[in-house]
Amino acid sequence: MTPPRQFDLGSGALPLDFANTVSGSRPASPRELLLDYDDLVAWGLQACLLAEADAAKLRAEAKRHPQAARRALERARDLREAIYRVFTARGAAGSPEASDIALIGAAAGEGFARSSLVERDGRYAWTWSGARDDLDRVRYAVARAASELLQEDDVPIVGECASDTCTWLFVDTSKNHSRRWCSMSDCGNRAKARRHYARTRTTN
Ligand SMILES: [Zn+2]
Q1: How far apart are CA 14 and CA 37, in angstroms?
Q2: 162: CA distance to ligand 1 center in Å?
Q3: How far is the CA of 57 from the centre of ligand 1 (A)?
Q4: pLDDT at site 203
Q5: 160 alpha carbon – ligand 1 mean position (Å)
Q6: Mind listing the domains of the chain with CATH numbers?
């Protein structure tokens, strides 16, 4: 068995981590990281939305119903792109498309309809009460997190990587919101190396 794909969960917010399951740049040359349903399960596990036992059930269900799993993956990707568009529109001081907000809200609502408010350690929390092998579980959880992020009193400032070859999002907590790269060790470093290369070429 090939080890599950490892995803980057460093954006600072779960819905943005999900938006970052496309590498390359949108819309010109996106590179899909959620290639099959198992990738979606691996992401859900890594993001702690699923326990290992749930993940195993979902993988088995997807194997039994490959077409349904493909459709669920498509729906998850549609949600992801809606999240990407909503938060980039906000970052650009624009306003998100109503249809994207509606898509996030509808998926969150479907998730709530399959959840119960349960007390644990003196606190109440929404807990999954639908079928354990519901192929849309990860999508519902991400939609709920996205709707919660949009409802915060101070919706975080979301930046988009300045690289030509990356459209990853991140919560920008820098002063003056001047952060440019999704990660200094990745895109930031590549940009620095390119500048250095350009400088050494012109001075030689
Ligand atoms: Zn980047």
Answers
A1: 19
A2: 7
A3: 34
A4: 56
A5: 8
A6: 14-203 (1.10.3300.10)
pLDDT in tens, 145-176: 999 999 988 888 899 999 999 999 999 999 88
Distance between Cα 159 and ligand 1 center (Å): 10
Alpha helices in the chain (DSSP H): 14-19, 37-46, 52-64, 66-91, 98-113, 137-151, 189-203
CA of 185 to the centre of ligand 1 (A): 10
pLDDT tier for residue 138 given thresholds of 50, 70 and 90: very high
**CB of 158 closer than 8 Å to CB of 90:** yes
List, as ranges, residues with CB under 5 A of the ion ligand 1: 161, 163, 166, 168, 182, 187
Instruction: Report if pTM > 0.85.
Output: yes
Provide CB contacts within 8 A for 36, sequence distance 6+: 73
Backbone φ/ψ region at 24: left (φ over 0), alpha (ψ -120 to 50), beta: left
